[in-house]
Write a structure and sequence with these properties.
about 70 residues, mainly alpha, about 60% helix, elongated
């Protein structure tokens, strides 16, 4: 329910997460990419092969990019 006659950003995000699985997946991928960029700027290799990663090692082997 909106507070003070307007919808809070957290309420909008909650509506997206509950009602739209595809948008939820896209938000997760965006967060993963931001994390990878942040780690890369620090010179840290991104752990693409961790359990539950949205980008498995096979996705990079198929495209010719080393993981």
């Amino acid at each position: 329910m909106p507070r003070h006659g307007r919808t809070a950003p957290a309420d909008l995000l909650l509506a997206i997460l509950i009602g739209q699985p595809r948008v939820t997946w896209e938000l997760r991928l965006r967060q993963e990419r931001r994390r990878a960029v942040a780690l890369a700027t620090m010179g840290v290799d991104y752990p693409y092969t961790y359990e539950g990663a949205p980008f498995p090692r096979s996705a990079f082997a198929a495209s010719g990019v080393s993981a």
